Amino acid sequence: MLFTERGQFWCSVLGLVEATNIPLGMITVLGSTPKLRNSLVYVLNGILLWLLYLLLRLPIPVAMYFLARDLWTQGPESGGPAWVFEDATMQTCWVVFLFTSGSFLWLLSMFWLKKITAGVVKGLKSAGILPK
Asked: Which residue among 17, 80, 89, 125 is least crowded, i.e. fewest CB within 10 A of its CB?
């Protein structure tokens, strides 16, 4: 979509999810050091990761809905946002791939959100913030 000079906005919106890699990297580094694994910094990075997942990954279906609406209402003659192929059959294949892969990645993110939530709850319980 970027090579056709269309869809930059949608690629940017969907690319924002990569901001979750910052606390994820910190958790990985802190988790590999036994003394830091149960530290406050580790727990705070887990909470930050959880918040970023809620803010950036959970609403992806909303962005996918608006992209689908734009694809439906703006055809190739108006330079639609993700109109990549001139051939209608190839464009349909592209859209099916776009939404199938996007849905799979979102479901995968929700799987990780469940694990992250369990880790945050465990960390907050071990810190005494939540009752055991």
From this structure: 89
CA dihedral (125, 126, 129, 132) positive or negative: positive
Q: Token digits for 115? A: 């694990």
Question: Does residue 33 or residue 13 have the better pLDDT?
Answer: 33
Mean pLDDT of the chain: 84
Which of helix, strand or coil describes residue 3? coil
For helices 40-52 and 88-126, angle between their N-to-C axes, nearest 10 degrees: 150
Q: How far is 120 from 47, CA to CA, in rounded Å?
A: 6
DSSP letter (8 states) at residue 83: -
Q: What is the dihedral of CA 83, 88, 93, 99, to 10 degrees?
A: 40
What pLDDT sits at residue 13?
75
Does residue 81 contact residue 5 with C-beta atoms inside 8 Å? no
Which amino acid makes up residue 76?
P
CA atoms of 115 and 79, how far apart (whole Å):
41
Tell me, what's the pLDDT at 62? 87
Report yes or no: 1 and 10 within 8 Å, Cβ to Cβ.
Answer: yes
